[in-house]
Known about the structure:
The chain has 104 residues and is an all-alpha fold. It has one domain (17-95). It has helices at residues 4-12, 19-95. It is rod-shaped and about 120 Å long. It starts with a helix and ends in a 9-residue tail after the last helix.
Amino acid sequence: MDTPELKSDIAEKEYKSPKWKLIRFFESSRDKWKIKAKDAKYQIKLLRKRVKYLEQNKREFKKRSRNLEIEVQQMKDKEKKLLAEIDRLKKIFDSGKYGIPKTV
């Protein structure tokens, strides 16, 4: 992948520092890069786990929310039926059909 020109530029590059200093510097640079890359991978792994956890919680809360909405609707329907029953019984009581006298 390297072109011949690039290889020759690298080979021709002369450093002013002694080789032992360059070696130490380049090794240190490489080691720091490796640590940085390892830390980045670890952070990515943690973030992926967190995203997975949050997505799972989101699904669970949506499901729970849907179930609660259904329950609320059922309770409202039951309330309507009970109110209708109360109205029906009030009409029967008010009409005096069953011989129960009204109290004042």
